[in-house]
Amino acid sequence: MGATGLSNETAAGVVQILLVTGESLPEGDDALLGSRGFAVTTVVDGASAIKALRGRPIDLVLLDLVLPDMDGISLLRAIRTARPRLPIIALTASDDESLRLDGFAHGADDCVNKPLSIAELTARIEARLRWRDESDTVVKAGPLSVDISRNRAAIDGCTVALSPREAYFLATFLRHAGEVLSRERLLLLVWELEFDPRSNIVDAYVAALRRKLGPRVIETIRGHGYRLRVSSLAPPLRDLDQQPTVSGR
Fold first, then answer.
1. 7-34: buried (b, 16+ CB within 10 Å) or exposed (e) per residue?
2. pLDDT class of 50 with cuts at 50, 70, 90
3. Whole-angstrom Cα distance, residue 150 to residue 116?
4. Which site from 107, 118, 137, 164 is most exposed, i.e. has the minimal number of CB atoms within 10 Å?
C-alpha cells in the first residue's frame, strides 16, 4: 500500500504522507517519493482515506480530486473541517481549471497538475511543510494582529475567526505593512504559484478579509495591487468570532 522514506524528518520523526489517488500512478512514483525521505501511504478511494486519517498520524495529504467512490471536493471539505491545519495538496488533471479553482476554494493549500513531476511535487510538499512549521507565530502591525496557529485576527481586543489560508494571507500583508503587493507577488508568497491572469483567487481573499475586518483594511492601488493601511485600521463593529469562514477557505 505504500513506501517508507528514510531521512526526511520533522521534530516528530519521518514525515508521514497520505496519498489518495483515484487511479494508478505511473509505476514507482510513490517509491520515488519514498526515496526523497517521506513515508508514503497510498490509498485508492475516499473511504480508505478516512480510515487512514483516523488510524495513524498524517503530516500532509496528497488528494486526487477525482475518486471512484465519492466526490473529491466533499472529501477535501471533510478533511479540512476535521483537521484545519493539516496541509493538503490537491491533484488535478492539467486541463481542468474549474476543478483546480474549486480545490482552492474549499481548502486546498496547493494544487498540482497531473501527470506529476516528482521533483516539483517534492518541492511543493516541502514548501507546505515549511508553511505549517512557520505558522506558530503571531504577526502584528499597528492595532491589528493575526495568530496563525489559532486562525484568529484581533483588532483592539476584538477577535475575528479566519480560515487557515485567510490567516496566512493576512499575515503576509502584516509582514509587508504599508507596502504595495501585486497579485503576482501575493500568488507567489502565499500560494507559491506563477501568475495566472484568469485567476481571481487574490481578489476573493481580499474581499473576504474586507468583509471580516472592515472595508478600509486593505487598499486597492489601481494598476499595482493591494496595500495594508495600518493607520486606517479600526476595530470591527462587533466581535465576529462566531462568524463562519467564507467559502471554506
1. ebeeeeebbbbbbbbbeebeeebbebbb
2. very high
3. 33
4. 137
Residues 180 and 63 grouped into a single domain: no
Task: Please compute the mean of the pLDDT values over residues 94-104 and round it to a whole number.
Answer: 79
Contact in structure between 69 and 47 (CB atoms under 8 Å): yes
**Within this chain, do residues 144 and 209 fall inside the same structural domain, yes or no?**
yes
Q: Compute the average pLDDT of residues 155-160.
A: 86
CATH at residue 60: 3.40.50.2300
Based on the fold, state whether residues 178 and 197 are members of the same structural domain.
yes
Query: Any alpha helices (H) in the chain, and if so which ranges?
Result: 29-35, 46-55, 72-82, 97-105, 118-133, 164-175, 183-186, 201-213
pLDDT of residue 1 exceeding 90: no
32-41, 101-110, 226-235: which has the minimum mean pLDDT?
Answer: 226-235
What range defines the domain where residue 193 resides?
Answer: 138-248
Same domain (yes/no): 100, 149: no
**Domain-ending residue, one of 112, 133, 154:** 133
How large is the average pLDDT for residues 140-152?
A: 86
Residue 8 pLDDT: 46
Same structural domain for residues 115 and 155?
no
Which is nearest to 81 in space by CA: 50, 112, 56? Answer: 50
> Which of residues 133, 164, 193 is at a domain's end?
133
Residue that the C-alpha cell 501575493 belongs to = 186
Question: 109-118: buried (b, 16+ CB within 10 Å) or exposed (e) per residue?
Answer: bbbbebebeb
**The residue type at 234:** A
Of 55-69, 157-171, 235-249, the one with minimum mean pLDDT is 235-249
